[in-house]
TrEMBL record:
<dbReference type="Pfam" id="PF20032">
    <property type="entry name" value="ADYC"/>
</dbReference>
<protein>
    <submittedName>
        <fullName>ADYC domain-containing protein</fullName>
    </submittedName>
</protein>
<dbReference type="InterPro" id="IPR045426">
    <property type="entry name" value="ADYC"/>
</dbReference>
<feature type="domain" description="ADYC">
    <location>
        <begin position="78"/>
        <end position="248"/>
    </location>
</feature>
Length: 282
């Protein structure tokens, strides 16, 4: 397969998927307008500045679509929010103000429920810059996800109040949502996918892959189907806690041993895994 084919076909090429090591994008302390939850671990959203004017009374996610209501009783969503600026503060030793602007919104395609947001970020006096960039430094879009993850362990963070991740498309949280494992509908499959994408075999947050590796992805719920012409060797099967089974001879990075003891994979999905990965056969 040529570099042109990989570039032209994007994430999918004969049912093989590009994977990478990054977990997610930026974590917001929900879309509440009354400050944070006191943890200090998240960015506090302070206000919305609507392109149409008016004041936002409430904001929430419907799946991955941002919706707001104004004090005047109007509801705005989807492409109506292009031009909206989100004002938030970030504490890193001293208060710093940040802004995120919704520069564009792409509605879901026919076979997707994912809204894509072109987001720009800036300091108070700095220029607008892309919030998300790909491995080549080119701007890419974000997916809004109503959960957050611990970047050290890869675990979903249990929160008493609503939290939001601005998940870049080329990182695990956004990528798994775009592949069809919607975290708002199938959280365990999405979590298993984030382990799978990062080759987090032990479920401890340690990645064993690099960007651009191709993997074959399969499940039993019809999100990812087998490609009849794909030739691959089974690598592992995945749960929300990491790999349920593993073939050390076919890991993506040639891992010879791991700190966790994992059984070899037998019959497909016999180990309790939700998603199966394979590596291209040579």
């Amino acid at each position: 397969m040529s570099a042109r084919e990989l570039e032209t076909n994007g994430f999918q090429l004969n049912s093989f998927r590009l994977n990478g090591f990054r977990l997610n994008g930026f974590r917001l302390n929900g879309f509440r307008l009354n400050g944070g939850d006191g943890s200090g671990d998240f960015i506090d959203l302070e206000s919305f500045e609507l392109a149409q004017g008016g004041t936002v009374a409430d904001a929430w996610l419907a799946g991955s679509e941002l919706r707001v209501t104004t004090t005047g009783g109007s509801t705005l969503a989807g492409t109506q929010l292009v031009g909206t600026v989100l004002h938030f503060g970030l504490v890193e030793g001293a208060p710093k103000k940040r802004k995120v602007r919704i520069a564009g919104v792409t509605p879901p395609g026919p076979a997707s429920e994912v809204w894509l947001y072109d987001l720009k970020i800036k300091d108070s006096a700095g220029p607008w810059q892309p919030l998300c960039v790909d491995a080549l430094g080119q701007p890419t879009q974000a997916i809004l996800v109503g959960e957050v993850w611990d970047p050290s362990t890869g675990n979903r963070v249990a929160a008493a109040s609503a939290l939001v991740t601005l998940a870049c498309r080329n990182a695990a949280v956004g990528k798994c949502a775009e592949w069809g494992y919607y975290p708002w509908l199938m959280p365990e499959y999405h979590q298993a996918c984030t382990r799978m994408v990062r080759a987090d075999y032990c479920g401890d947050g340690n990645s064993h892959t690099v960007d651009g590796v191709l993997i074959h992805v399969l499940d039993e719920i019809g999100v990812e189907d087998a490609e009849p012409d794909a030739s691959y060797a089974i690598e592992a099967e995945w749960t929300a806690e990491g790999a349920a089974c593993l073939d050390l001879a076919h890991t993506r990075m040639g891992v010879s041993e791991l700190p966790c003891g994992l059984p070899a994979c037998g019959e497909p999905f016999a180990s309790g895994g939700l998603i199966q990965t394979g590596v291209p056969s040579i």
